[in-house]
Amino acid sequence: MRPTFGGSLMQRVFEPGGPELLASTKYLVQATLSQELGGRITVDALELESRDAALIVTVTWTLQRTGQQQTSAISIPGAAS
Hints:
By secondary structure, the protein is an alpha+beta fold. It has a domain at about 40-80. The protein contains 1 helix and 3 strands, in the order αβββ. Strands 1-2-3 form a 3-stranded antiparallel β-sheet, covered by helices on one side. A hairpin with a 5-residue loop joins strand 2 and strand 3 (about 70-75). It is elongated. The protein starts with 18 loop residues before the first helix and ends with a strand.
């Protein structure tokens, strides 16, 4: 397992919400994806949204080897207030 993978999303559960949280988290996730998977994927879109006291992270990427595009979303409860 890679402890830095995910941009420390779970640690952000205890930080105050707001636009600063979204902006800094987006930066960390983008940097982590580039560092860990930069040779395998191309990030096409990265969206963060605060909804119902949760942080929703949606990533659209293209697998470089096949050119196949995929989208995944993760909801982190309690991370946005």
